[in-house]
Amino acid sequence: MIIGLYNVSARTGHWPGVSWVLRSTFESSVSLRAGPAEAVPDLSAEGLAELGAKHFESACAFCHALPGQDRSVTALSMVPTPPHISDLPGDWEPQQLHWIIYEGIKLTGMPHWPAARKDEVWAVVAYLETVRSGTPPPSGTTGAGDALAYCAGCHGTEGVSESPLIPRLDLQTEAYITQSLADYRSGRRASGFMKHAVGAIDVTELATVLRHYADLPATAVAGQPGHTEAALVEKGEELARRGTDDVPACVVCHGPEPVKDNALMPRLAGQHQPYIAAQLRLWHEDGRGGGPRANLMTEAAQDLSEADIDALSAWYASLTPSPK
Q1: CB of 194 within 8 A of CB of 117?
Q2: Closest to 50 in 3D by CA, of 127, 147, 134, 160
Q3: Block means of pLDDT (10 residues each) for the chain, length 324 residues?
Q4: Residues 167 and 271: beta-carbon distance below 8 Å
Q5: Cα separation of 36 and 31, whole Å?
């Protein structure tokens, strides 16, 4: 009963000195465990901060608010009080912000990243860096309860995102989108972004949204980002059409030619080059999962070099989308 003398009520706060001890421990722990500065990627990469902004509004702003906004009364009543977004970057280095966002902090209400995807966290770090610089991009993920508006905040109403890191949905079949959402919900496919999104929308509304995207015509998009060198694109086509006894050629499942019984496979012709490259890297690292042929994709990606990934993604991005 003696240990019960410490009042854990949030109304009374901590005894004198306890907050200082906790804060000092927190700062030392993060500094000890955060990765090296050399591990920080290019945070100015196209679409990265925009992706982080969209996720932050949906998943983080409840506690930390958005630039120019006040925190809610509920957030201000928490102990410790969640810092305002403008104070989040503070003196933290990017690699330290990454560790905090990915790992979370005990006894603060700060959760860990909901999936084993450290690469995704850099988008939020990139966004916080733009807040620090005073030039944050707009977010706009939420749609006042409208499921389509919520999804369109990232994917666009017509299924084409402004960020090349977010996949085009106008290319995909209803069967593939349905399978992907089921994989995100179950955790078979790792993504903190999508794990949060599928949990934020009612299943019935989600079905309506996926049909909306599946019914869209796949259209050509001018100015696809990424590599456009003819030699690179040519190498990508050669790689995509080459198969082995153990692993079929990429085009067998992903087109661009119509392939029988591949409705559960993603169409890649016309997809954003940076997105394709990111997914191939995940398969190469055995960190993606999902889909009916996950083992085959992991095996197929094992021998891909960075140059191969650049070439494959460049070729597919250069193509006109295939009819569904």
Answers
A1: no
A2: 127
A3: 78 86 94 96 95 95 96 94 94 97 94 96 98 89 71 92 92 93 93 94 89 90 65 94 85 83 88 95 89 84 93 94 82
A4: yes
A5: 10
Distance CA 72, CA 56 (A): 16
Q: What is the pLDDT of residue 144?
A: 45
What is the Cα–Cα distance from 286 to 298, expressed in whole angstroms? Answer: 6
Neighbours of 78 (CB within 10 A): 14
DSSP 60: T
pLDDT at 145: 56
What contacts 286, CB < 8 A, 6 or more positions away? 298
pLDDT at 246: 76
Residue type, 312: L
Classify the C-alpha dihedral 293-294-297-299 as positive or negative.
negative
Q: Which residue has the tokens 């083992």?
A: 295
Q: Whole-angstrom Cα distance, residue 206 to residue 24? A: 44
Distance CA 319, CA 255 (A): 10
Alpha carbon of 258 to those of 242, 251, 261, 267: distances in Å?
Answer: 17, 9, 9, 10
Say which residues have a Cβ less than 8 Å from residue 149's Cβ, sequence separation at least 6. 142, 143
Residues in the chain: 324
